[in-house]
């Protein structure tokens, strides 16, 4: 039988069976959560239970959570909330970077970690808000958000943190992080696609992003995505329990995968390996073969991984994250991202390594 292996959790994690049940239950429920009758009130309870669960995952006040259509909307809304210039790190997700086109970004070092000296320089220019993610989607590199937030607080500057990739993978407490706004997305942690959250702290004004009804305490108009939100809540609870239980098995799998890659081809580079990283992510550089070509070759062998580079109208776009880490255009276009999660197994790693070995033999045969 043709085996299929999914190792692209940073693009979207498989939905937990318990989440799927919750989504199914919610989608068959009658009643708009804004209606005052019993049907509406029961649906409202579902939304509010989910809000509590999501809040508990990051130590937030449930009243300061705005459910959105995903991480992209939450990031857009956070930037829109700024009352003046915004500066972001050079390795942010496009949903942050593209909202502030042309602005000077905060630099990262060769390991992909934001340079605190550059944060200091940026803060001295008097921005209204800076945005620094907690974990990078391509490399898994963790940013020193606590330090950035402390510096920003001293300078009287607001901080937004995109925690989409970190949530459920490392413990997060919004108060301890010291940020003012935090973004989450359900589908990276085993929840449904198309639902996320922008979370604030006390005293932070969250601007109104959608206009219409008074949902989400007047901060985001439109009938709530009740099935999505219900699933998000369950996924957040499962992720919190898993974090309490420990993330050791995934770390071991990722380390075995990287050891295997190094045995197959000792010259390979694991981008970001010199920095603290998420335990599920491996960004593997194979200079000379475009990332999207590697992804296609692995896909033919039944293994799904991600790539930071993409081919658009015949032109290869290299990863802006790897470019910010100082890689030249060829190297920045030659990486794949392998990301594991709750359903990953040792057999998945073995399958990947077999497929990778075959792919490499093909590459070497052509060279
Ligand atoms: N931020 C990061 C770091 C991401 O990796 C992603 C998605 O890949 C997003 C934001 C966007 O989230 P969504 O797909 O929920 O819009």
Q: Which ligands accompany this protein? A: pyridoxal-5'-phosphate
Helix-and-strand structural type: alpha/beta
> pLDDT below 50 for ≥5 consecutive residues: which ranges?
none
The averaged pLDDT comes out at 94
Number of helices: 14
State the major sheet. Answer: 6 strands, mixed
Number of strands: 14
N- and C-termini, Cα separation:
31 Å
β-strand amount: 5-15%
For the CA atoms, what is the radius of gyration? Answer: 21 Å
What string gives the helices and strands in order?
A: EHHEHEHHEHEHEEHHHEEHEEEEHHEH
The helix content is: 40-55%
Characterize the overall form.
globular
Strand order of the largest sheet: 2-7-6-5-4-3
Could you characterize what this model shows?
With 367 residues, this protein is of the alpha/beta class. It contains 14 helices and 14 strands. The chain has a six-stranded mixed β-sheet with strand order 2-7-6-5-4-3, with helices on both faces. The protein has a four-stranded antiparallel β-sheet with strand order 8-9-14-11, with helices on one face. Strands 1-10 form a two-stranded parallel sheet. α1 packs antiparallel against α9 (226-245), α2 (38-58) packs parallel to α9 and α10 (248-264) runs parallel beside α14 (346-366). The radius of gyration is 21 Å and the shape is globular. The mean pLDDT is 94. Pyridoxal-5'-phosphate (PLP) is lined by residues 70-72, 75, 93, 95, 133, 137, 162, 164-165, 185, 196. Pyridoxal-5'-phosphate (PLP) binds at residues 70-72, 75, 93, 95, 133, 137, 162, 164-165, 185, 196.
């Amino acid at each position: 039988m043709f085996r299929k292996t999914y190792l692209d959790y940073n693009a979207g994690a498989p939905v937990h069976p318990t989440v799927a049940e919750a989504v199914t239950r919610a989608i068959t429920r009658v009643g708009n959560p804004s209606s005052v009758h019993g049907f509406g009130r029961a649906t409202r309870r579902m939304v509010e239970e989910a809000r509590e669960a999501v809040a508990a995952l990051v130590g937030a006040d449930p009243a300061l959570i705005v459910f959105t259509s995903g991480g992209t909307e939450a990031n857009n809304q956070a930037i829109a909330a700024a009352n003046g210039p915004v500066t972001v790190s050079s390795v942010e997700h496009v949903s942050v970077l593209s909202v502030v086109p042309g602005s000077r970004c905060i630099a990262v070092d060769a390991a992909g970690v934001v340079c605190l000296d550059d944060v200091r320089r940026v803060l001295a220019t008097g921005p209204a808000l800076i945005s620094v993610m907690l974990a990078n989607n391509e490399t898994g590199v963790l940013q020193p958000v606590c330090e950035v937030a402390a510096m920003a607080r001293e300078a009287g500057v607001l901080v937004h943190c995109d925690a989409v990739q970190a949530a459920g993978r490392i413990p997060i407490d919004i108060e301890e992080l010291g940020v003012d706004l935090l973004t989450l997305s359900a589908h990276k942690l085993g929840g449904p696609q198309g639902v996320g959250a922008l979370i604030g702290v006390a005293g932070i004004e969250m601007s109104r992003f959608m206009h219409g009804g008074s949902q989400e305490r007047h901060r985001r108009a439109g009938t709530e995505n009740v099935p999505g939100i219900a699933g998000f809540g369950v996924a957040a609870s499962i992720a919190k329990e898993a974090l309490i239980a420990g993330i050791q098995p995934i770390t071991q799998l990722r380390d075995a995968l990287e050891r295997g890659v190094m045995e197959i081809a000792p010259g390979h580079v694991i981008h970001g390996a010199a920095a603290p990283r998420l335990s599920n992510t491996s960004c593997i550089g194979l200079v000379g073969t475009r990332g999207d070509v590697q992804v296609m070759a692995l896909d033919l062998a039944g293994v799904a991984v991600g790539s930071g580079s993409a081919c658009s109208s015949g032109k290869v776009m290299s990863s802006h994250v790897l470019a910010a880490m100082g890689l030249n255009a060829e190297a920045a276009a030659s990486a794949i991202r392998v990301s594991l999660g709750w359903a990953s197994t040792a057999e998945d790693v073995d399958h990947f390594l077999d497929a990778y070995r075959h792919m490499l033999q093909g590459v070497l045969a052509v060279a």
